[in-house]
Specification:
Layout (H helix, E strand, L loop, with lengths): L2 H12 L4 H14 L2 H11 L16 H12 L3 H11 L2 H13 L10 H13 L5 H14 L3 H11 L9 H17 L1 E4 L4 E4 L2 H18 L2 H17 L15 E2 L3 H8 L3 E6 L3 E8 L2 E5 L11 H10 L4 E10 L10 H5 L8 H7 L2 E11 L2 E2 L5 H11 L7 E3 L2 E4 L2 H13 L4 E5 L14 E4 L6 E10 L8 E9 L5 E7 L13 H8 L3 E5 L2 E4 L4 E5 L2 E4 L7 E4 L2 E5 L11 H13 L1
Parallel strand pairs: 3-13, 8-10
Antiparallel strand pairs: 1-2, 4-11, 4-12, 5-6, 5-7, 7-8, 8-9, 12-13, 14-15, 14-18, 14-19, 15-16, 17-18, 19-22, 20-21
Helix pairs in contact: 2-10, 3-12, 4-6, 4-8, 5-6, 6-9, 7-8, 10-11, 10-12, 11-12
Bound molecules: adenosine monophosphate.
């Protein structure tokens, strides 16, 4: 398939924010794509080069892209830079400049989706000395053979900035409409902007199958291919693979022990809720891989975990779910999440950090045993398997501390013990429940003291004054609503340090924010919502000032949440429920 066909679809999707319209465009398009191009097309539609769980990345910064556009268009970098400042989008800049050039030179080669993906993958493989120059020439070559509108989307894809706003839900629905729409009699009426589904129940069955396959594969490409080739059956039979992360099961919140029992039944299992980071650990003989809750591969950053798993997990093929908690090697004291958070993105000094601030892995679930998925087996059984295969070794790897009980008094005692030993609270688990990847179905629920910090994304920042003038020192924070919109909740500038040595500093935040700047107006910059921070506060108030309708009183930055992406920050619903919770007290 020609890349230009895909570009037409990007343009169509770009022209609307209506979900049904997007689903209609996408589903018709997916039907038309050949089986052999389907996987590639889905990845590119999502603006990806690799599936989300794959740690490879193209690694091209905007500054490098400026040079590539300059080579391809023959325009000086200074000009490209000033155009970029005006539009805030290098995609549009390259469109304009390549268009100008193409008017004077002869046509371009036909790019195919295969060729585009292949070249972009090659980019990711370039490393070592001279790699920046090699990347520039490869990108320039691609841009030279591109038509102007192709160049726009190539640049955006490479910079990981697609902007077309097609969410996961839309792609999922488009796959259903495309491959099962006729069978399920899905009818979309353009004029009325309405969709009719004759048999809702059957539709939901297919939707669940697509969603579940996605939760396991973490990539819509194989899901679409399977749906096209093998139908519903194929989707249901899709198996997890050791080494490919699957979405983690999520927890609901309960307000008390009684509600915990109501949700999970009696008896239920109660476990310490550790204040660390989620780790999904895949062991396939000597190939051990560790993923965060966002399914980023962090194996290289945690060598001590690899070692613990090699030594103390007495099976060669398993996938474990766990929470890793850092501790100070010298004093043995456990550290809050914020301390180990800095290890997640580390590229240098990894050994030293793993020496000084190692983690203890608290294992609480197992989802693959001897190479077979066991997500359908009851929690109780999974836990039994775990007990047999983990050699409990404190400060290395242990089973999460737990009790199984129906007795509220016993739970209260255990809850106090959890809190007094520095944990966040308790997790309550339903004994006969399966493991549901990616779902918040209430098979595990959390119980913690009422006031909780929020995880918020930075959407704007402001240059400081006086001695802070070289830093972006005030940050506008946002939560997310159920449609994926970011809604502002206030501004924070406390909690950061003036010197880098003292912890998370204004300078470090400025370095992180600068490459994400999309627009500048006076002192204020609008940025791409990427950086998630944990924020403490005194109270949540109703407020007309911010788009969420709430404002935080005395917000303070606790630290970066490098294990979270903008899609898993605190929701508007949480703000509401925290606000209501406060009123009760
Ligand atoms: P929250 O992040 O507040 O939604 O709470 C759920 C998180 O608690 C999970 O994603 C885990 O990272 C963490 N956690 C800590 N201890 C446990 C445990 N024993 N079982 C399950 N999750 C746990």
């Amino acid at each position: 398939m020609h890349y230009s066909r895909l570009v037409e679809i990007y343009e169509k999707l770009d022209a609307t924010t209506k979900r049904l319209v997007q689903t209609d465009i996408l589903s018709k398009f997916l039907k038309e794509v050949d089986a052999e191009d389907l996987g590639t097309t889905i990845l590119l539609l999502e603006g990806r080069i690799f599936p989300r769980w794959d740690e490879r990345e193209v690694g091209i910064a905007a500054k490098t892209m400026l040079k590539a556009i300059s080579v391809a268009s023959g325009e000086p970098i200074s000009k490209i830079n000033s155009e970029w400042k005006k539009t805030g989008d290098l995609g549009t800049v390259s469109y304009n400049l390549i268009k100008k050039k193409k008017q004077s030179t002869l046509g371009s080669h036909d790019l195919t989706v295969k060729k585009v993906l292949k070249n972009l993958m090659e980019l990711a493989a370039i490393g070592g000395i001279g790699s920046v120059d090699k990347k520039i020439s490869l990108v320039a070559e691609l841009l030279t053979s591109a038509k102007p509108d192709e160049a726009k989307y190539l640049v955006r894809t490479i910079l990981n900035d697609m902007r077309i706003g097609v969410g996961e839900g839309t792609i999922r629905d488009a796959i259903i409409w495309a491959f099962f729409g006729d069978k399920l009699k899905v009818k979309y009426f353009k004029e009325e902007h309405k969709v009719l589904i004759e048999d809702r129940e059957r539709y939901n069955e297919y939707a669940d199958a697509v969603q579940e396959a996605y939760n396991i594969a973490n990539d819509f490409a194989p899901v679409a291919e399977t749906a096209k080739k093998h139908g519903l059956r194929g989707l249901e039979e899709m198996e997890m693979q050791i080494g490919v992360p699957l979405k983690v099961m999520l927890a609901l919140k309960v307000d008390g022990i009684d509600e915990g029992f109501e949700r999970c039944g009696k008896p239920a299992e109660f476990e310490f809720k550790y204040d660390g980071m989620r780790m999904q650990i895949h062991k396939n003989d000597n190939d051990i891989r560790i993923f965060t809750r966002r399914l980023e591969n962090i194996t290289a950053q945690f060598p001590e975990v690899v070692e613990s798993v090699e030594k103390y997990v007495k099976e060669s093929k398993v996938v474990l779910d766990s929470e890793a908690v850092g501790y100070n090697k010298k004093t043995g004291k456990y550290l809050p999440f914020q301390s180990i958070s800095q290890r997640i993105k580390r590229k240098y000094g990894i050994e030293k950090m793993s020496e000084e601030m190692p983690v203890e892995v608290n294992v609480f679930d197992i989802i693959n045993f001897r190479g077979k998925s066991i997500i359908g087996r009851p929690f109780e059984e999974r836990k039994d398997i775990l007990r047999k295969i983990i050699k409990n070794t404190p400060k290395k790897i242990i089973l999460a501390k737990s009790i199984t009980t129906s007795d509220k008094n016993e739970v209260e005692k255990f809850y106090r013990e959890a809190i007094s030993s520095g944990n966040e609270g308790l997790m309550i688990k339903k004994l006969d429940a399966p493991y549901k990847p990616g779902a918040r179905v209430g098979f595990m629920v959390k119980l913690k003291p009422t006031k909780e910090n929020l995880d918020l994304v930075i959407v704007k920042a402001e240059w400081g004054e006086g001695k802070r003038s070289k830093w972006l020192s005030s940050y506008t924070l946002a939560c997310i609503d159920n449609k994926g919109n970011f809604l502002e909740v206030g501004k924070a500038s406390t909690g950061l340090k003036e010197k880098r040595e003292e912890g998370l500093s204004f300078a470090e935040m400025t370095d992180l924010i600068k490459p994400l700047i999309a627009r500048e107006e006076g002192k204020e910059v609008t940025i791409k919502p990427k950086i998630v921070i944990e924020v403490g506060y005194e109270e949540i108030q109703k407020s007309p000032t911010y788009s969420s309708g709430y404002a935080l009183r005395f917000p303070r930055v606790i630290g970066l949440r490098e294990d979270r992406g903008p899609e898993d920050i605190s929701t508007l619903k949480m703000m509401e429920s925290f606000y209501n919770g406060q009123k009760k007290k």
